[in-house]
Amino acid sequence: MDPLLIVILTIGLFQRGGLCLPAKDDSQTQLIVLQNEDMEPTVLDCDYNIKDTDSFLTVKWFRNDKTIYQWIRGTHPAPIPEFKNDIDSSYESSTDPNKQYSSLALINPTIHTTGDYKCVVQTRSETFTSHQKVQVIDVRNYTLYLNQNKIQNETQLECVVSNVFPKPTITIISEDDDVVKKEPRAPEENEEGYFNATTVVAVYDTDDDVDSYQCVVSFEGYSKNLTAFATSGSGGGHIDFRMWLFCVMYFFLSKLKVLI
User: Fold this and answer.
1) Is 247 helix (H, G, I), strand (E, B) or coil?
2) Residues 180 and 119 in one domain
3) Structure pTM?
4) Nearest to residue 255, comparing CAs of 241, 247, 239, 243?
5) What's the chain's average pLDDT?
6) What tens digit of pLDDT does each residue of 210-245 get?
7) How far is it, in rounded angstroms, from Cα 71 to Cα 64?
8) Most buried in the list 5, 61, 70, 237, measured by CB within 10 Å?
9) Both 158 and 128 in a single domain?
10) What pLDDT score was predicted for residue 194?
11) Are 185 and 118 in the same domain?
């Protein structure tokens, strides 16, 4: 065969992935919603089929390109010491000796469990790679306020959410009036990795009817939202605890005739 033709064919194979290692990209993100009670392990499967069943076989898992778990066929799996409390290394994914400990069982999840996970399977003659994404949702200790301030015919609405993960999107909805001005602000990450965010909008109101407002906090890929409501004249979606406490103390002290 003409040497020039051989070179052309070889380049074509590399460009089309003809000589590349098999790889799988699982585009569906695995969601983990943190709860206060004990949670079941989240299992990530490593899908592969090998032909070289008699030779060396190793399975490695990476998170954000950092090795977190390794299994060599015929031995017990070994999570990297740094991640030993994050992985259940006793979890058996299959009775097939070639896949017995190939899955990754995530336990004790935190927001730092979020990441890109990669499984690499190697024999002496074959290599398989698969990718998966994990997204943790933590709204266990959030706070959410919808405040309003009316100036003439304009009502300013401020929605504030704090201590949530991941980065939220805030939408303020006026059921009766048109939003005339928006002031979105980029969410800020605190020292623990959680997010605080604020959005301010203004609506134009020309009548004295009671108007309803809604603040919706959403997260990409998660179907459930956080919601706060307010109506015109309500003074906002929450009560200041310090003001409430002052009023209560004032009431009881006045009853005891301590106040003049």
Assistant:
1) helix
2) no
3) 0.74
4) 247
5) 81
6) 788 999 999 999 999 999 998 876 554 443 434 334
7) 19
8) 61
9) no
10) 98
11) no
